[in-house]
Amino acid sequence: MTHFVDSEVGRLGTVLLHRPGPELARLTPRNNDSLLFDAIPWVGRAQEEHDAFAAALRERGVEVLYIGTLLAETLAVADARAELTERVLRTPRLGDTLRRRVGEHLSYLDPAALAGVLIAGLAHEELRLGWDRGGGLVYRLMDRLDFVIDPLPNLLFARDSSTWIGDHAAVTSLAMPARRRETSLTDAIYRHHPRFGGTAFVYGPGLEHLEGGDVLLLAPGVLAVGVGERTTPAGAERLARRVFDAGLAHTILVVPIAQERATMHLDTVCTMVDVDAVLMYPNVADTLSAYTVVADAEGELQIDGPAPFLRAAADAMDLATLRVIDTGLDPVTAEREQWDDGNNTLAIAPRLCVAYERNVETNAQLERAGIEVIRIAGSELGSGRGGPRCMSCPLVREPLHRAADGPLPA
Ligand SMILES: NC(=[NH2+])NCCC[C@H](N)C(=O)O
């Protein structure tokens, strides 16, 4: 099976999603901030919304894979099981005694149940220790409401824990403590699941911080990488070197974004909806800048700029201009809809995208510009601040013709 993605808009063939489950039920007013949610989602409704998202993709012929299913299948492989168990137990927080007890507990679980615990975590009360409460000092001193294994509610945002560049997987290196463990799951799936046998990797966990929401494949050979709250300049530099060494791109635009929650990833202010068009948050469209990075004959990085992002992008993509579609019409609507992931569209093909229905003005703007919009509900899904692009990791897209090859078939 070849997985291949060289653009944001080539017809989508296969996508990786995570159907939210019991990990969302772990969110409480005590922990939602540190777990990066702005509200406490209604789990059943979030699942319905997510199922409708997946159905909309399937209706357009997209193959949908789920992280939970792939993980359970991966855990049937003995090496994968040993590795993932060892990684979740490695945290110094547990101490030796509790680590041994949790290890025993996990060893009795079948692959599906173990996958469930690795995603939803393990609460203090769910670990039934005998009359001597054999978890030692750590378990005794733990609050009843603490987690022995932390849940991963943000796995829903499948974009961030891995991203594909050409036929290479980039398992990322997540910045926020609440999300770090996500990449141990995507990494294990790509390395041990039979469907991904022979996959080549261009990035991996443990390297400098890099999140998939910051990586945009503007055109074949041209990447934009946002640096801000999540991806660091060091992460962008490491990715540039690796991508150039592997021959996966010729130009990388490094785009500084404000280090704020509203703009945590580049894809919260800019997504592509056509080979030559972006949907952009107007409050940043004119001020966003980019450093253009290429490799010289010796493989050293050459850095140019900063220049206005839209100019630098058009030049790198070999276009006269990059068309810009604005979010909302007035500054207040634009700000509201940007916060609700109006900018975070997922293209299924050129001029066809999935968007949250609530962003009425932004969707109307897209349609005025000739972009077909498939609207999905996201009242619960959006409480973690992520839209259709954040929730999806494309594994297969039809290779894109370069703009110079002429217009694409509709
Ligand atoms: N690609 C994205 N914009 N992802 C959004 C991730 C949202 C998630 N709650 C976080 O804070 O990390």
TrEMBL record:
It is found in: Cytoplasm. One of its GO terms (biological process) is L-arginine deiminase pathway. NCBIfam families: PRK01388.1. It catalyses: L-arginine + H2O = L-citrulline + NH4(+). This is Arginine deiminase. Its main location: cytoplasm. It holds the Pfam family ADI. One of its GO terms (cellular component) is cytoplasm. GO terms for molecular function: arginine deiminase activity. Pathway: Amino-acid degradation; L-arginine degradation via ADI pathway; carbamoyl phosphate from L-arginine: step 1/2. Its EC number is 3.5.3.6. It comes from Plantactinospora soyae. Belongs to the arginine deiminase family. The active site is at 390 (amidino-cysteine intermediate). InterPro entries: Arg_deiminase (IPR003876). Keywords: Arginine metabolism, Cytoplasm, Hydrolase. The keyword Hydrolase applies. It is an enzyme of class 3 (hydrolase).
